[in-house]
Amino acid sequence: MVSVARFTALLDPPVYIVTAAADGQRAGCLVGFASQSSLDPVRFVVWLSKVNHTYRVARHAPFLGVHLLHRDRTEVARLFGGETGDRVDKFARARWEPRGEGVPVLGDACAWFIGRVEERADWGDHVGFCLTPVDGSAESLPRGSLLTLGDVTDLRPGHPAP
């Protein structure tokens, strides 16, 4: 029998930066758990750690931003994955602009969408946010151009895993 850890070690999915705005706060974090979950209607789920500052803001946000980075943008991934919004204003060190509902959209993203939060699923140490895309943009990139989990394996998270 293959263990889940050995199974997932074979994967190298893209990493995402998820952003949120609610109650006068902004937040964003690096996410490794995300996927399209429906074709019709189109739905996408991002999983946020409960220990993360972004999760606490996202709980009150009606929309979230989901961003992909080009492989050469590791410094942005390190900012959003290696720092915590509890102590650092990540947006003071990033290029961004507020879009619909005030959701921060990162200027260094090669693709992004804003999604309306339809549902939340709490099945452990992460909560899934089911999103319906309402706005977005994506460059045309060759395969292999996106920043992946394998590119940031040496990153120490701003909040250690529970």
Automatic annotation (TrEMBL):
* SMART domains the UniProt entry points to: Flavin_Reduct
Task: Read off the InterPro entries from this record.
Answer: Flavin_Rdtase-like_dom, NADH-dep_flavin_reductase, Split_barrel_FMN-bd
Q: Which UniProt keywords apply?
A: Oxidoreductase
Q: Which Gene3D superfamilies did the record assign?
A: Electron Transport, Fmn-binding Protein, Chain A
Descriptive protein name: Flavin reductase family protein
All copies of the Flavin reductase like domain together span 8-156
